[in-house]
Design goal:
Elements: H1 2-18, E1 39-42, E2 45-48, H2 60-79, H3 83-94, E3 98-99, E4 103-105, E5 108-114, E6 122-126, E7 136-139, E8 150-157, E9 163-170, E10 175-182, E11 188-197, E12 202-204, E13 207-212, E14 230-235, E15 244-247, E16 256-261, E17 267-273, E18 280-285, E19 297-300, E20 307-313, E21 316-321, E22 329-333, E23 344-347, E24 353-360, E25 363-370, E26 373-380, E27 385-389, E28 396-400, E29 408-414, E30 421-426, E31 432-435, E32 448-456, E33 462-470, E34 481-484, H4 499-506, E35 510-514, H5 524-528, H6 536-551, E36 560-565, H7 567-578, E37 585-589, H8 608-611, H9 617-626, E38 640-646, H10 655-667, E39 675-680, H11 691-708
Parallel strand pairs: 34-35, 34-36, 36-37, 37-38, 38-39
Antiparallel strand pairs: 1-2, 3-5, 4-5, 5-6, 6-7, 8-9, 9-10, 10-11, 12-13, 13-14, 14-15, 16-17, 17-18, 18-19, 20-21, 21-22, 22-23, 24-25, 25-26, 26-27, 28-29, 29-30, 30-31, 32-33, 33-35
């Protein structure tokens, strides 16, 4: 009976969309944004920046501009006849129990659970992981704000399991506050740490290490350039003003520093990076001595390659690195003899990407990527293969480690069309079993299929792409299709589940995800093929993906939309300005769109290792060629565009989107095609966004897409 109701609902939804006669919407007149006379000179080249004043996002004039833009945008969205229907359906299918993989700390197992529509998942704990019905609430982030805009950013436990440090983010900001919970009473202590960014708490003895910046200029909390990160140690029961400075580098203001401590508390590590690629590792022995005494030694010299500490094996440190191994390998390094000639290879580089290695129960769990999907292998500390862990299918498995004296690890497995499955794997018996009750959904995953194809890019390179749709789809070139991509920062687009995507597939949509160069799906060489002066390769790959979907008759240009966020927003902005006729709709979200000034805000300088900087003449020349803001041309017919950003985004500041919208509205061919910007309030770059806002975002994005692809 329930299945019949579900199928009837699908038929009704399909009829509402496919048979509705499209009527024109009333697009409010958008007054051209005020321009000023700002001109910058780059190596003798003058570049006008008439909307520079929009960078001051707290100025009254900018706030007024935002209000007017939102008025126009929501007037348009409110007219889409099936918008409320989409929101209702999204709310229905969002409403199922969601669990995170449990992990053990002391006597307790901790796990996250969302009843369905809670804004933030609640953290529970129990001593009996087989029977979670009696689990108690450990932390409910929903009680930290009335609207659910405070989210959990980090959680770490003291070694004696007396305390837990909780990092929270407000309104999606990268700025975190850390407070401490007494694990016996579940009450907050008086310990509070502010102005933390890109750092959790690393416990050691009676306190923890953390990284922070100085307090920003008042009124510029979300746009001020962040410099001179420092590492401090906080001792429990003291004020933050009393925290001890552990590490700083006054000669290099644009570096990140993060501390970690080996499980046996023998070593203190400092991981240093100058951006999003390349690192250096310092080490200090802290066994039986004060952490402030003695100096740090260089374990791995930066910043040409990437290095990550996995664990220590006695006096040797296990490091995952791409040094002389683009697909990564695991090596053991003696801190007293760190030269390469003394390295011991524990897991050699193979033909597939060694994405991650986790220490677990005295063994190692290695995550490999094979054509962008996960394979898991179980090794001992010396690198001897003990088992290949069987996965439920082609998907993504994220593993959690466990303490040296524990035997159980958990992993969460997800695919494109089915939510996560949580598994336990026993390191001793090498058996595994499922955890958690069977979840009931308001959709039927069996109605859809996923395939992986390989298309040929402009330079002849084969690039993989996942394509999802209803079973029995007809390839007649008439399907509404959404192409998604990222292509940067060594980020891998592996199988993941999206509730909102399911709604799009229900309505006959085709969803494609291209694994572009610039990502790390095939190792560091794949990454480097799409960075710095080779960034155009990423855009060529994405354009080739669109052309493949059209050639194979999944869709046609008038039925094709593109979407991406952050670096993916840059991707969309570049492709819609380079090939505007290829796409009917474009949704650049929280995008890096001004490539000449991105490095002047918050932590944008950290992306120069990926993009280059306009402060360098050679790099300025290639940045200018593809910078979306600077390549909008007068009188061109651009795709229907919904730019999405948020007022608390201090990762990619909203000025990028503001200036792009103003320029697009000024220069695009004057027609009925909408070029709109949607500016969310009390939201940031995306992490920690409450369920209510996620549903609103998805409602507006998919309503815009489906209306314009009719």
């Amino acid at each position: 009976m329930k299945k019949l109701i579900y199928l009837n609902a699908l038929l009704i939804l399909g009829a509402c969309t496919n048979n509705m006669e499209k009527k024109s919407l009333n697009l409010m007149t958008i007054e051209n944004t005020r321009k000023d006379s700002t001109i910058d000179n780059y190596f003798g080249v003058e570049i006008a920046d008439p909307y520079r004043w929009l960078e001051n996002d707290t100025a009254p004039e900018v706030i007024n501009w935002v209000a007017k833009q939102n008025e126009v945008t929501f007037n348009y969205l409110n007219q889409i006849p099936f918008r409320e229907e989409i929101k209702t359906r999204l709310t229905e299918i969002w409403n199922y129990e969601k669990f995170s993989a449990p992990f053990k700390e002391g006597e307790y197992w901790y796990f996250g659970k969302n009843n369905g529509l809670q804004n933030q998942s609640v953290i529970y704990r129990t001593k009996d992981i087989e029977n979670v019905s009696n689990a108690e609430v450990f932390l409910d982030p929903n009680k930290l704000s009335e609207d659910g805009t405070v989210s959990l950013a980090s959680l770490s436990f003291s070694k004696d399991h007396k305390f837990a440090a909780v990092g929270i983010s407000k309104s999606g900001s990268d700025w975190n506050e850390i407070f401490v919970i007494n694990l016996l009473t579940l009450e907050k202590t008086k310990d509070v740490i502010n102005w933390v960014k890109f750092s959790g708490a690393t416990w050691f003895k009676n306190g923890f290490f953390y990284s922070r910046y100085d307090e920003p200029t008042k009124g510029k909390d979300f746009s001020n350039k962040n410099e001179f990160m420092k590492i401090y140690y906080h001792e429990m029961g003291t004020q933050q003003s009393e925290d001890k400075l552990v590490y700083e580098d006054k000669a290099h203001p644009l570096r990140y520093f993060n501390a970690s401590v080996s499980e046996d508390e023998s070593f203190l590590f400092i991981n240093i990076s100058e951006g999003t690629s390349g690192s250096e590792i310092l080490v200090k022995s802290i066994k039986n001595q004060d952490y402030l005494k003695g100096s740090f030694k260089t374990l791995c010299k930066g910043f040409t390659n990437n290095y990550g500490v996995v664990t220590n094996d006695g006096n040797k440190i296990l490091i995952l690195t791409d040094y002389k191994a683009p697909k990564y390998r695991l090596v053991a390094i003696d801190p007293t003899q760190p030269e390469e000639k003394n390295w011991e290879v524990r897991i050699a580089e193979g033909k597939n990407l060694l994405e991650n290695v986790t220490s677990a129960g005295g063994d190692l769990i290695a995550n490999y990527l094979v054509d962008a999907s996960t394979r898991l292998k179980h090794y001992d500390f010396k690198g001897k293969l003990k088992s290949e862990i069987e996965l439920p299918g082609i998907g993504t498995a994220s593993t959690g480690g466990c303490k040296a004296n524990e035997n159980l690890i958990t992993y969460n497995y997800i695919s494109f069309t089915e939510p996560g499955k949580i598994k336990f794997y026993d390191l001793k018996t090498m058996d595994q079993k499922s955890w958690g009750a069977e979840i009931k959904y308001a959709f039927d995953p069996s109605q859809f299929e996923t395939k992986q194809v390989f298309f040929t890019s402009k330079d002849g390179t084969k690039v993989p792409m996942f394509i999802m749709h209803k079973k029995g789809l007809k390839l007649e070139g008439n399907n509404p299709t959404l192409l998604y991509g990222y292509g940067g920062f060594n980020i891998n687009l592996t199988p993941s589940f999206s509730i909102s995507r399911m709604m799009f597939l229900e309505r006959g949509g085709v969803y494609a995800i291209a694994n572009l160069r610039g990502g790390g799906e095939y190792g560091e060489e794949w990454h480097q093929a799409g960075m710095l002066g080779k960034k155009q390769t990423v855009f060529d790959d994405f354009i080739a993906a669109a052309e493949y979907l059209i050639a194979e008759k999944y869709t046609q240009s008038s039925k094709l939309a593109i979407n991406g966020g952050s670096n993916g927003g840059l991707l969309v902005g570049a492709c819609m300005t380079q090939r505007p006729e290829l796409f009917k709709a474009a949704i650049p979200a929280v995008g890096v769109l001004d490539m000449l000034r991105y490095h002047k805000f918050t932590i944008g300088w950290g992306w120069a290792v990926e993009y280059g900087s306009s402060d360098n003449k050679e790099q300025f020349n290639y940045l200018l060629k593809y910078s979306p803001l600077h390549n909008i041309k007068e009188g061109v017919s651009y795709p229907a565009t919904l730019i999405m950003t948020a007022d608390h985004d201090d990762r990619v500041v909203p000025a990028h989107s503001f200036k792009f919208a103003a320029t697009l509205q000024e220069k695009a061919k004057k027609e009925d095609t909408p070029h709109l910007i949607r500016i969310d309030s009390k939201a940031g770059h995306g992490a920690g966004k409450p369920t209510a806002k996620l549903i609103e975002d998805a409602t507006d994005m998919y309503s815009f897409i489906l209306w314009n692809l009719q």
